[in-house]
Amino acid sequence: MDSEKITPMKPPTTRTALKEIRQLRGLSNAELARIVGVSRQTIYSIEEGTFVPNTSIALQLARVLNVKVEDLFRLEAEQRGPEQVSCWVVPTRLWSPDSRYEWRA
In principle, which of 19, 42, 50, 54 could form an S-S bond with 38, CB 3.0–4.6 Å? Predict the structure, then answer.
């Protein structure tokens, strides 16, 4: 058995496309909050990345916005190589945070 040191992983950062998808659906923070059953401040905090919702809220948001939870939230990779290009799925196109990658559906 090798005596390799195992370095603990840092918790990944969660990124969200909630604001973009909410705006595409024509909903305000307050309207989405009322439909989902949370406060407007909760929606704002999720969009700003200062609050990561629990599974129940994430599922309700996805259902109301008619997307998958994975379309709303993703984990930010600590280091990205060419094989780790992350994309948001938006109803009419795929969008990548790296402007070199933009595809139209």
Answer: 42
